[in-house]
Design brief:
mainly alpha; two-stranded antiparallel sheet; 3% strand
Length: 119
C-alpha cells in the first residue's frame, strides 16, 4: 500500500498527463471548486436511468433516504418484537425491491445510461 501511494501520488499532475487512464482513477485529483457537486443551488439534472429532470439537492435526497430507512428499520424492529403488531407482508411492501444502481423498482428493468455504477 505504501508503494502504491508513492507511485500514484501526483501533486504536479504529470503522471496523469503521461499515463492517463492507467493511473487517473487511483491518484488524487483535486476537486474543481466551481462545481456544485451537492447541487445546493438546485439546478436541473437528469436521472441517469430515466433521463427524467430533477432539481433536488444531494442534501434533500439524503434526508429523504434517511427518513425512508428510519421508517423501514422501525417497522423491521417492530416485526422482530415477539409482541409486535407488524407482519412480514407489511415489511415486504415497504421494501419494494429497489435497484441499488438506479434507486427505482427492479420490475422496471432500467439501466444507468449516463453513468457507470461503482459495482
Amino acid at each position: 500500500m505504501k508503494w502504491a501511494q508513492l507511485i500514484l501520488f501526483d501533486p504536479y499532475h504529470w503522471k496523469n498527463k503521461l499515463l492517463g487512464s492507467m493511473v487517473s482513477s487511483f491518484s488524487h485529483q483535486p476537486l474543481d471548486k466551481n462545481i456544485d457537486y451537492l447541487n445546493t443551488k438546485q439546478r436541473e439534472w437528469k436521472h441517469s436511468a430515466t433521463n427524467v429532470p430533477s432539481n433536488l439537492s444531494f442534501e434533500k435526497l439524503y434526508n429523504d433516504a434517511l427518513q425512508e430507512a428510519s421508517s423501514l428499520f422501525e417497522m423491521i424492529l417492530e416485526y422482530w418484537n415477539p409482541y409486535g403488531t407488524v407482519n412480514l407482508k407489511q415489511v415486504s411492501t415497504l421494501l419494494d425491491h429497489i435497484s441499488y444502481d438506479t434507486g427505482l423498482p427492479l420490475s422496471r428493468n432500467l439501466d444507468n445510461l449516463y453513468s457507470e455504477p461503482i459495482i
